[in-house]
Amino acid sequence: MSQVMATPIHIPVLLNETVEALAVQPGGRYIDCTLGGGGHADAILGHSSPGGQLLGIDADPEAVKVARVTLEAYSGSTLLVNENFVNLQAICIKYDFFPVHGILFDLGLSSLQLNSDSRGFSFQHDAPLDMRLSPSQRTTAADIINTSSESELAYLIKTYGEEGHSHQVAHSIVQERPIKTTLQLARTIEQAIGSRRGRIHPATRTFQALRIAVNHELEHLKAALKQAIDLLGFRGRLVVISYHSLEDRIVKQVMQQESRDCICPSSTPICVCGHRACLRLITRRVITPSPEEIEFNPRSRSAKLRVAERITTWDEQYKTVEKLCFLTEVKANGWRRPVLLKKLQGLFQHA
Ligand SMILES: C[S@@+](CC[C@H](N)C(=O)[O-])C[C@H]1O[C@@H](n2cnc3c(N)ncnc32)[C@H](O)[C@@H]1O
Question: From the CA of 131, how far away is ligand 1's center (Å)?
């Protein structure tokens, strides 16, 4: 068995709900921005055949390798790229893969990453404090832990980890430095704020904070969601599964804002923003895993799925064209406004 095949598998979360939320149809074109082990991508390709196409993206080169094996049967209809989804629009333009019928973000980490004994994402394994999704990134978790000031650490742990004892944790880290491994960090946190509180380990929030900071997760998510909306054809679906409240808040805000015709403050007597809705919320409430799914796959317990559908007018399409035509990748492809417009209209007719 090859090393890739021997990797522990990732169980896709809310699988049926995701396929349904994406309204996957035969012949459709989809983007999976977070390939992971390729579980969701496999189901999307299965439901979109014959004729379906999928662009799969993951920042982690190991994930792309694993997904390539999982999706081998669909190699003729998949394009898998090792990239960060913060560059979503540029990637789609480079590969001429837009507009699409659906875009999926299944955020966070896969079991392949969490179970790895060398990536440093989990305090279940002793490993160097790395936490980078991609080896091409410069800053590791160890860099942040060992070079930030105490107040910077406290701020980061509070903001990204929502840790109530951020000052004690930051103080202990600074006393204990240099900290090089996951277990050394977990022990330091335990010494600062005591052992297990309720169901979660005391290091959970600090590890989450570090991972978010190392990978700029929240900034990248915000930027990518906005880009995703522009890549959807008429009635294309945007589906996002998040695993903690900071991510879910961003998804909720973007979807709610983009589904409103006016975003002026409530104190403004008449609309001055001119904002027009380009999404329709499909579910007002989040979709969560059933008790059976949580029992079968405990890692699904914090999952929240939100779904919205692209609505667009001719005016909106012209605006999208105006935005896209200034991108370097669009210029590199030699596309001018009429070509872009034709591409967007292609899916209009299809829908
Ligand atoms: C929860 S897993 C996805 C699992 C996948 N849906 C499956 O069924 O196997 C999340 C994946 O997203 C990737 N990821 C997280 N942030 C990313 C980003 N900014 N750009 C690209 N990939 C990212 C991670 O490397 C990880 O492989």
Answer: 13
**Ligand 1, CB within 6 Å, residue ranges:** 10, 12, 34, 36-40, 57-60, 63, 84-86, 106, 108-110, 133, 220
The tens digit of pLDDT for each residue in 71-108 reads: 999 999 999 999 999 999 999 999 999 889 999 999 99
Q: Write the pLDDT tens digit of every residue in 150-183.
A: 999 999 999 999 999 999 999 999 999 999 999 9
Give me ligand 1 centre to Cα 168, in Å: 32
Predicted confidence at residue 233, as pLDDT, reads: 86
What tens digit of pLDDT does each residue of 23-32 get? 999 999 999 9
CA 30 to ligand 1 center in whole angstroms: 16
Q: 262: which 2 tokens?
A: 């006016």
pTM of the complete model: 0.91
Q: Whose CA is nearest to atom 27 of ligand 1?
A: 36
